[in-house]
Predict the structure.
Amino acid sequence: MFGKEKKQIIYMGSDHAGFEAKNKLKKVLESRGYDVTDLGSFTEKPTDYPDIAREVGEKVSEHKDSFGIIICGTGIGVAMAANKVRGIRAAQANNEHYAEMARRHNNANILTMGGRTTEFEDMKKIATKFLNTDFEDKKRHVRRVNKIEGGNTR
Ligand code: RB5
């Protein structure tokens, strides 16, 4: 899929509620040629979603141009937690339109979804849209995204 170019790096994570979907989606993305690193959960044992969300957030923040995908029950808690990491713009998306706009206008670098709220087939479509949509590098979008981090406000 990426030819001789560098593969797109994706960090994935989940809590127990997103465990199964995360594992399934990981296989799909690996089969499409993505360079996927799974940061857990590695069992269905109940875990605290902020821990894994922070870990994914830190990896994405450290590795320029990487993406993250985190799945919990709803996608809400992991988005809240990941967004505490500097440089992270995590967006919860329940359909392809949200995924597309999160990339085009918000330059989201982490996608979050709900293992208890979204069918797996829909998750695949949402993730595909997210990974294949570029940020609209227009002045107004760059300015607005910069304001999220508290920088360059005018
Ligand atoms: C776990 O029961 C659930 O609260 C968690 O997966 C997530 O949905 C939180 O936002």
About this structure: The chain has one domain: 9-148. The two ends are 39 Å apart (CA to CA).
